[in-house]
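User: My collaborator sent over this chain with a note saying "see what the structure looks like." That's all I know about it. Can you take a look?
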Amino acid sequence: MDAEVRDENIGQEMQLIENLPFETDNGIAARGRVGLIVLASDYTIEHEWRQIFAHLPGLALYQSRIFNDDQITPDTLRAMEPRIRDCADVFLPGANMDVIAYGCTSASMAIGEDKVFERIREARPGVACTTPITAAFAAFDAFRARKVGVLTPYRADVNRIVADYIRARGFDVPVFGSFNEESDAVVSSISPKSIRAGVKRILTNSEVDAIFVSCTSVRLVEEAASIEQETGIPITSSNHAMAWHTARLAGVNDKLPQFGKLFTL
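Assistant: Without extra context I'll predict from the sequence alone. Here is the result:
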């Protein structure tokens, strides 16, 4: 019903139209809702995921941030475990989430994937979960790769965790390269040209079935397809693999060849 009211702020009469009719649709999440837990110190993952999700209409992306220390050590990585639950809890209270992804590669290995999933499901029982290393293993299987070359920015003690974790899951790591940089701020500024050069150096030292670039602060998404074309070797990274795996867990199987071989599988 229309009514005449007086707006006391401006001293004028205003017509108020209430209970306007409306209809609803599936909103921006017609194909699913994805939650991404981002490190407080991460400069890169949201940028790279937006590039990919822009080509996945109907798969809605929501983010929360988890406190972490800028210096990446085994102890600072493990310190994140008790904070994961609250970060999962703040995604769209009262609404169902299809997938929740935890965006730290090395912490997923230092804590353990199963413990990460337990903390997420304390807040969101039954939700599908992934981490960068979970997604990387799924990518290796999709590539049918057993021998994996690894490139990281981490310091030596974190690199040992990464290499041991991957080998413990049955994959061979014949060559491992690192920039040996502790700060996410610096890692996020490592140029794609440097990543490409690091990949080529790895490939000159050993034959591998695929390359994995570890760390969500590293930029690879825009370069993945061209590196594959140049080297002939499938490549993925923490952000690249986890975006792909998250979409697949949500039941979205769109092929996006502009992002490399993985997004055609």
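A starting point for your reply to your collaborator: Residues 256 and 263 are 5 Å apart (CA to CA).
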